[in-house]
Amino acid sequence: MIRIDSVTKRYPDGTVAVDRLSLEIPDRSITVLVGPSGCGKTTTLRMINRMVEPTEGTILLDGEDIQRQPVTTLRRSMGYVIQNAGLFQHRTIVDNIATVPRMLGWGKQRARERAVELMERVGLDTSLAKRYPYQLSGGQQQRVGVARALAADPPVLLMDEPFSAVDPVVRKGLQEELLRIQGELGKTIVFVTHDIDEAVTLGTMVAVLREGGRLAQYAPPAELLSTPADGFVEDFLGADRGIRRLSFFPAAPLELSTDAVVPADAPAERIAAVGSPYLLVTGPDGRPLGWAERDRLTDGTVDTGRLLPYGRPFVPGADSLRVALDCAVLSPTGWAVAVDADGRVTGVVSQRTIGEAIRAAHSAGRAEDEKVAG
Ligand SMILES: Nc1ncnc2c1ncn2[C@@H]1O[C@H](COP(=O)(O)OP(=O)(O)OP(=O)(O)O)[C@@H](O)[C@H]1O
Ligand SMILES: [Mg+2]
Questions:
Q1: Is residue 199 part of a domain?
Q2: For the segment 87-118, what is each residue's pLDDT rounded down to a tens digit?
């Protein structure tokens, strides 16, 4: 949908903010521009809605040069969200969100109804509608900024460090909200951040820019983590990239063992048949109660008053290998507990089995990369 074709931006003082940048921005997905301060992220974003005009090169929207489109038409098709939301301080929340529809000539009532609908969509309590921006928290203001950008239902959303002014917990909530909204509305989002974790969490594609506005790498996040193009990208990704990459592999293929899972009232013969040194004890509802050490059982039966904590379980169908590994590492026995969506135990898995699954996933990933490269 958006194609940036060898675009350069040289400001009048000679600063080259963007240097021969080419990017194909896929439809209905989130493309993240990430890189250190001053690498040309904001300039690139602003060239997409012509707040900044390129010095050289072209930007195509649906195959058409944006230079040939009237600026107002172009901007109407693109919502814009900035850090600190940039709300109109003298307008209520509902009127802030209704700004663009009102500009487009919608009636007051219809615009307000739309605004209230959007408040719900972005996870804002509609009781806040009549407040002014200063009466909201930073995270709430940021949600209003997103709602305002969505008000006229533009196909494209440009977001410039929208979540960087809020604390990490609120930020995580906003990121989850954005992914949910994206899943529901299928917007084409270009998202600027200097936080690589945010880029990896949100991006379908991630463009890493370096100083001088040059593209260092453009790839899906999992590929960025497995095969950084050079030392700059590798440094920028930071530590733990191997562990972080595990987020992209599902836990579903893990082979679970049920041999060591026993109900609290299991008879001594059943318990004696368990081969491992630990038993995962479950309650009548099938949920985990805790681990029992086989050597310390009295009369060969379970004493539910003396169990070790089972830690945090994972859900194979929904969680990644990273979550499964984390559960195993945190477990007192080194085994992770798998549960279904209702919290009932479906099996347990050792660190060793998870390690094997990680190696298998990595070699499958490498084969995939080679196929793409070849
Ligand atoms: N109007 C301007 N005139 C001259 N130079 C500018 C202008 N706007 C930006 N620049 C320069 O262009 C380069 C890229 O700026 P830009 O704002 O695009 O960076 P950025 O990646 O968004 O940085 P940050 O992460 O700090 O927001 C910087 O060196 C900046 O100083
Ligand atoms: Mg910027």
A1: yes
A2: 999 999 999 999 989 988 999 999 999 999 99
Specify the ligand 1 atom closest to the Cα of 35.
Answer: 21
For ligand 1, whether the C-beta of 193 sits within 6 Å is: no
Q: How far is CA 293 from CA 171, 197, 308, in A?
A: 41, 39, 8
Ligand closest to the CA atom of residue 35 = 1
Is 281 found in the same domain as 200?
no
Q: Which CATH number covers residue 279?
A: 3.10.580.10
Pocket test for ligand 1, best of 11, 47, 84 (most atoms within 8 A of CB): 11
Reported as a single tens digit per residue, the pLDDT across 318-335 is: 999 999 999 999 999 999
Smallest Cα–Cα separation from 366: which of 185, 166, 175, 222?
222
Q: Cα(first)–Cα(last) distance of the chain, in Å? A: 26
Q: Structure pTM? A: 0.85
Give the residue, out of 9, 19, 32, 41, with the most ligand 1 atoms within 8 A of its beta carbon, to mutate for a pocket test. 41
197 and 111 part of one domain: yes
Domain that holds residue 68: 2-248
Q: Are residues 349 and 238 in the same domain?
A: no
